[in-house]
Inverse folding.
């Protein structure tokens, strides 16, 4: 399978960027720089989606994740963290911390070992013409996945109502 | 050569980073962002398999995950604001009302 034989450095650059920014996200002390690291991860992943013949997903990654979701998170960070609050953001109990880190590394290694070599069992075809083109995705969306689409819209409506109800002042 | 294995390893590493962040931090907002990191690694895996199998269903699934993530963020942050109004803190170790 040749997702990108010639653009090796492209993958390497953005993979290192994503992993570095991910490490920054989970290790930095304050929440706002952490959000900045997460933004970098999103941008790097959008670039990798472009590499994987998914331009629509890349656009949505930038506009929805980096645009909408992260701005919401940053708003809440600015709303909640007051400057005079002394926030100990790390787990104080060292044994919990090391246990969590070991579990995470273990899970990640297990995933890599479990999935390693999966390219041999997957049927490898060449990509057809216009693969990942937005119009084809739209056709798929409104023909094959129309029920899922409607369910997603109902889900968003429920989330909207729930968020308004929860954030209302009176019921607190 | 960046084949499918490299992308999968990258996605696994990002997922592991999300798990580590979720298990080791105490700030509820950073926990939230760790969950976002995990969701993104799964998106990367779906897009990779979509490209390797020449099947665009994976990309459609990613769009549905975007919808779920948006709903999750909206409700989760609203819950977080409620919690902050009650406890005046976002430290998850202080949310021990249901602890036995």
């Amino acid at each position: 399978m040749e997702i990108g034989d010639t653009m090796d450095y492209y993958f390497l650059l953005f993979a290192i960027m994503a992993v570095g920014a991910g490490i920054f996200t989970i290790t930095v002390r304050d929440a706002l720089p952490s959000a900045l690291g997460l933004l970098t991860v999103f941008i790097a992943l959008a670039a990798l989606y472009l590499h994987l013949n998914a331009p629509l997903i890349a656009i949505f990654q930038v506009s929805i994740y980096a645009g909408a979701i992260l701005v919401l998170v940053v708003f809440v960070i600015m709303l909640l963290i007051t400057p005079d609050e002394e926030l100990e953001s790390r787990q104080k109990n060292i044994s919990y911390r090391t246990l969590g880190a070991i579990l995470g590394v273990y899970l990640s290694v297990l995933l890599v070992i479990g999935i390693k070599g999966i390219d041999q069992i997957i049927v490898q075809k060449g990509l057809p013409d216009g693969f990942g083109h937005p119009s084809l995705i739209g056709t798929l969306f409104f023909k094959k996945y129309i029920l899922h689409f409607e369910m997603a819209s109902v889900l968003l409506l429920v989330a909207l109502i729930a968020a308004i109800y929860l954030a209302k002042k009176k019921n607190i | 050569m960046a084949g499918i294995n490299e992308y999968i390893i990258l996605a696994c590493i990002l997922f592991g980073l999300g798990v580590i962040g979720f298990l080791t931090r105490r700030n509820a907002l950073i926990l939230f962002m760790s969950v976002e990191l995990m969701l993104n690694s799964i998106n990367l895996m779906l897009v990779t398999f979509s490209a390797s199998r020449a099947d665009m269903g994976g990309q459609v699934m990613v769009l549905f995950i975007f919808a779920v993530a948006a709903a999750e963020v909206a409700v989760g942050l609203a819950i977080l604001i409620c919690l902050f109004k009650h406890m005046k803190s976002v430290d998850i170790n202080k949310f021990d009302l249901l602890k036995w």
Summary: Chain A has a mean pLDDT of 82. Residues 55-80 of chain A form the longest helix (26 residues).
